[in-house]
Amino acid sequence: MSSGFSALKWGSIIAGVLVGLLVAILLNILVQVGSVVVLGFQMRGTPPPDAQAALLTGLPLQLVAVLLALLGGIVGGRFAGRRSEEAPILAGLVVGIVLAILVAGWRAFSFGGFDLWVVLLAIAALVGGWLGGWLAQRRAAKELEAT
């Protein structure tokens, strides 16, 4: 029984990364669009671009983005880890690494630069992927113990 990269199921890792991206990025975009729409209703019209930028770069939405990156990592890591019987934590960690690179790249590209939030998003996705793999291993151990 090997615990290296040959024990991983790469199809499930790619699927886990895609699921994690859907959770992390699409939910983040929906939250941002929803907050700008609410701001527009509060202002009774189209908010000025400065108000939109201030809203999107404000602390509450940045914290939501970090939490969604963590959630995307957990969901994607668990998705990949459940399908990798031999090394679920490693599968989750690989999902977290790839997801961290993609989410950080998306954030740096869409907001025009590298800042502290890029690092926090990458760390959250990485920790989420590892945690998802750990949760998959824990569930597999409980199922094995129950039989």
Account of the protein in words:
With 147 residues, the protein is mainly alpha-helical. The chain has one domain. The chain has 5 helices and no strands. Helix 1 (10-43) runs antiparallel to helix 3 and helix 3 packs antiparallel against helix 4. It is elongated and about 60 Å long. The relative contact order is 0.18. The model has no long low-confidence stretch (mean pLDDT 86).
Pick out its properties.
single chain, 0% strand, 147 residues, mainly alpha
In short:
The protein is built from 5 helices and no strands. It has 147 residues and is an all-alpha fold. It has one domain.
C-alpha-based Rg, rounded: 18 Å
As a percent range, the share of helical residues equals: over 70%
Average residue-wise pLDDT: 86
Per DSSP, the total helix count is 5
Task: Output the structural class.
Answer: mainly alpha
SSE order and pairing:
Blueprint lengths: L9 H34 L5 H8 L2 H25 L4 H23 L5 H31 L1
Helix pairs in contact: 1-3, 1-4, 3-4, 3-5, 4-5
